[in-house]
């Protein structure tokens, strides 16, 4: 966190300090293990160079083949380094490579996260398609964020976070062979971007964002850029940025903002950013909600809070706040980065206070209340009740025909309430129910199941067909879904006052041996494991000649 200077800078001192920064030393870049930028003699001062240190397994011819563009040979590289042959270079030795000798090829960027509705416009045919996670963004493509946001990663690991209602065009995405250096040129036509750019080599790697009114050339920094029809605003939170109207840029250091207006004759305005707010520490991971983010009140009239997922960079939340508290109880389980910045009178965000935060809520099993285990219900929409034992939890009731819930019948909606009705009526039969609680989006807990019998009348069983074969009659009937078995009765008169045969059957067919020349009547009813009332189906006459 940057500290407020002890004395207020006057405009003259600030201008002088900004001018002095233009003569700052060139930034260092670690490109590969054991590699760095260097310019130590007259030749490298005139020709920007990159120093490569040989790693285990490297050979001079292989390095030359992988890094040099066509037209530049290993022999020429030996001569440039004053070497007789490649065998003189071994692991740990360094060689100098002019930047303009390195290979260059287009290297697409990659989308690492997308939230909401974001469009990718092809630079080849202008076709629009939804931007997805892991989409490749190529030269000439545009991202139109609309109501959503996206995070894009460049070939060198630099990161661009695109705010809602923004339009970003990728004019150049060039990589210098396998050196890890890139040349990136973007155009922000409208909206806002936040960037974290890897350090670049002067005269070699490059990162530049152009807007309709300004240009920002970066030397390894973190900054935000906003543009509209009124002009362009820049806030630098790390490193330095060369910023201004084309051909009139000045070096803006961390802790300052700058703006270029489209108004006629308006020059570059430079202001010190509001200092980072002092956030009160939070014990992490957070295992119980409610929880609040608190900070010391400052002169800033408002604050801006941005919340990002640590791993993906996804923009979870961005809002303006008054006061000095924010309820973070709606965050799901995960690792986050919170950035809180004060806003000045122009609405420009200042230096951010950055806080890592982990949420690790654990769901706790609920306590079942009603119905009691083994209870019966005369209603096909019985109410289920329970009590929560955790914090910030949602729950739902699940109903199945088996104790293992392999075949769920229905569920209620996820809700923070302690009661629910099934999503559809329950037919007569025996069921099992339980309550599942969820906390933090990915932690769940289940109660032990309870048995419930729903009373009612089973539908009558209807005989489908009768087949006669010799002295045997086979009867077939329709299946009843909630039945466990069937009761069959055989009588010699249609009123079934005198039963001559009765049997309980598990299937929907039965074979009967009848005396030829006599008339019989057969009927069936469905049975269930619960105490359900049932009705006999209509009788069917049987006659064997």
Short description:
This protein has four helices and 44 strands.
How would you describe this protein?
This protein starts with 10 loop residues before the first helix and ends with a strand. The strands form 9 sheets. It has an 18-stranded mixed beta sheet that branches. A hairpin with a 3-residue loop joins β33 and β34. The protein folds into 5 domains: 50 residues, LysM domain (Membrane-bound Lytic Murein Transglycosylase D, Chain A); 164 residues, Jelly Rolls; 81 residues, Immunoglobulin-like (Sandwich), CATH 2.60.40.10; 88 residues, Immunoglobulin-like (Sandwich); 82 residues, Immunoglobulin-like. It has 545 residues and is mainly β. 6% of the residues lie in helices and 44% in strands. It is elongated and about 120 Å long. The longest helix has 11 residues. The N terminus is likely disordered. The protein is built from 4 helices and 44 strands.
Keywords:
single chain; 545 residues; mainly beta; Membrane-bound Lytic Murein Transglycosylase D, Chain A; Jelly Rolls; Immunoglobulin-like; 5 domains; 18-stranded mixed beta sheet; six-stranded mixed beta sheet; 4 helices; 44% strand; elongated; disordered N terminus
Q: How many strands in all?
A: 44
**How many distinct folded domains?**
5
Distance between the termini: 103 Å
What is the tally of helical segments? 4
Signal peptide: 1-27
Keywords: Signal
InterPro entries: FecR (IPR006860), Ig-like_fold (IPR013783), LysM (IPR018392), LysM_dom_sf (IPR036779)
Domain LysM: 50-97
């Amino acid at each position: 966190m940057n500290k407020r200077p002890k004395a207020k800078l006057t405009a003259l001192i600030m201008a002088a300090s900004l001018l002095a920064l233009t003569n700052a030393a060139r930034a260092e870049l670690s490109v590969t293990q054991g590699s760095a930028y260097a310019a130590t003699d007259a030749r490298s001062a005139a020709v920007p160079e990159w120093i490569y240190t040989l790693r285990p397994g490297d050979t001079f011819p292989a390095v030359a083949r992988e890094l040099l563009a066509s037209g530049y040979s290993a022999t020429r590289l030996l001569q440039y380094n004053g070497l007789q042959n490649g065998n003189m270079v071994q692991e740990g030795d360094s060689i100098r490579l002019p930047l303009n000798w390195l290979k260059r090829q287009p290297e697409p960027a990659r989308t690492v996260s997308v939230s909401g509705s974001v469009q990718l416009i092809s630079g080849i045919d202008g076709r629009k398609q939804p931007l997805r996670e892991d989409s490749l963004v190529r030269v000439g493509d545009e991202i139109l964020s609309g109501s959503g946001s996206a995070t894009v990663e460049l070939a060198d690991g630099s990161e661009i976070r695109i705010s809602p209602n923004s339009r970003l065009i990728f004019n150049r995405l060039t990589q210098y062979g396998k050196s890890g250096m890139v040349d990136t040129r973007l155009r922000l036509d409208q909206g806002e971007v936040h960037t974290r750019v890897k350090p670049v080599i002067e005269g070699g790697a490059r990162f530049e964002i152009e807007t309709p009114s300004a240009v920002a050339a970066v030397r390894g920094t973190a900054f935000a850029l906003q543009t509209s029809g009124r002009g362009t605003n820049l806030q630098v939170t790390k490193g330095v940025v060369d910023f201004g109207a084309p051909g009139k840029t000045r070096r803006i250091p961390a802790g300052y903002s700058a703006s270029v207006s489209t108004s006629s004759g308006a020059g570059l305005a430079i202001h010190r950013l509001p200092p980072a707010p002092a956030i009160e520490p939070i014990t992490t991971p957070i295992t119980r909600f409610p929880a609040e983010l608190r900070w010391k009140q400052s002169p800033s009239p408002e604050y801006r809070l941005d919340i990002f997922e640590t791993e993906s960079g996804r923009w979870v939340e961005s809002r303006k706040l008054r006061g000095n508290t924010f309820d973070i109880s709606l965050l799901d389980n995960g690792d986050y980065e919170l950035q809180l910045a004060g806003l000045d009178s122009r609405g420009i965000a200042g230096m951010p206070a950055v806080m890592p935060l982990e949420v690790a809520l654990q769901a706790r099993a609920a306590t079942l209340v009603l119905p009691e285990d083994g209870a019966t219900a005369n209603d096909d929409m019985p109410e289920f009740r329970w009590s929560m034992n955790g914090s910030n939890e949602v729950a739902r009731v699940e109903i199945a025909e088996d104790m293992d819930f392999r075949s769920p019948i229905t569920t209620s909606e996820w809700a923070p309430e302690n009661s629910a009705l099934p999503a559809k009526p329950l037919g007569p039969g025996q069921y099992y129910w339980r309550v599942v609680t969820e906390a933090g989006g990915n932690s769940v807990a289940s109660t032990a199941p309870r048995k419930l019998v729903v009373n009612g009348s089973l539908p009558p069983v209807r005989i489908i067909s009768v087949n006669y074969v010799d002295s045997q009659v086979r009867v077939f009937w329709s299946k009843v879904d909630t039945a466990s078995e069937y009761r069959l009765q055989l009588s010699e008169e249609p009123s079934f006052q005198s039963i001559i045969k009765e049997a309980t059957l598990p299937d929907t067919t039965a074979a009967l041996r009848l005396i030829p020349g006599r008339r019989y009547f057969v009927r069936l009813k469905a049975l269930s494991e619960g105490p359900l009332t049932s009705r006999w189906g209509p009788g069917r006459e049987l006659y064997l000649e």
